[in-house]
Amino acid sequence: MTTSKKKSVLGDNIVSGGLNALFGQQGIDVDVDENKGDAIENLNVNFIIANPFQPRHSFDENALRELANSIKENGILQPIIVRVAKESKDKYEILAGERRWRATQLAGNETIPAVVRAYDDATMMQAAVLENLQRENLSPIEEALAYKQMMDVLHLTQVQVAKRLGKARSVVANTVRLLTLPQEVQDWIQTGELSMGQGRTLLGLHNKRQILNLAKRVMQERLTVRQVERLVNEMNENKVVSKATPQISAELKETEKALSDKLATKIAIKHNQRGAGKIEINYGSDQDLNRIINALGLDLND
């Protein structure tokens, strides 16, 4: 492998003002300090690999080509940040700057300026998520998967993830909840056919089939989040009503009416799927109760 070392010709202010401003508050040091022996190296692009914890699954090809054209004209204005790969000591893993690395390859450059650091897995994961979130390059599903990966691999709570990334806990919680949606709905959010707001609103339903059907309707009719909220509320209200007042057969309804007519009061027959149930007889006073008892032919004095 061929690398060449040189002085930090880009200047500390560029590195500090860029990546260090992005990561500094989270305690990730990416500043270049020549007094400590730091230097920018020109690394062969073929010996660099992506961050193993990269949460982004897709890159905008048009944006990469634009960046590649800029690199051809102006060069790399800010070095990427890497560490020596854990599995292969002759390669490097990117902490930050994967887009620049990919665009550099598109531009046909064989080398790229880089700062080599010693980072652990936790820092690599945190930095990969942070860079993408700050630059708004992640889809809602990629963001949710990134949070979950941090919780699973680093054994963090939602509160701890939020603190490390400078996010509100509610943001982390609501985003991770998207992963409980059916996979088809997650795919539609990933491709942008559904928005994060629409996806979060669909979480108000607890039946997978209802969620899928409503999601399809949202895409077909291009419903707003507010319209989806109204539909979810209506569906939940109808579910409550149907549970509270189960339907009875036409035959039982006729029986209910006949009893009501005979006793001159409201009668309700409640019947379950097992064939059992109960008859409720309403009365308005003690005198009304005695009347109903007499109408039933009961003699309570015996």
TrEMBL record:
One of its GO terms (molecular function) is DNA binding. Pfam families: HTH_ParB (PF17762), ParB_C (PF23552), ParB_N (PF02195). InterPro entries: Chromosome_partition/occlusion (IPR050336), HTH_ParB/Spo0J (IPR041468), ParB/RepB/Spo0J (IPR004437), ParB/Sulfiredoxin_sf (IPR036086), ParB_dimer_C (IPR057240), ParB_N (IPR003115). NCBIfam families: parB_part (TIGR00180). Residues 41-133 form the ParB-like N-terminal domain. One of its GO terms (cellular component) is chromosome. One of its GO terms (biological process) is chromosome segregation. The keyword Transferase does not apply. Belongs to the ParB family. This is ParB/RepB/Spo0J family partition protein. The lineage of its organism: Bacteria, Bacillati, Bacillota, Bacilli, Lactobacillales. Keywords: Chromosome partition, DNA-binding. It is found in: Cytoplasm, Nucleoid.
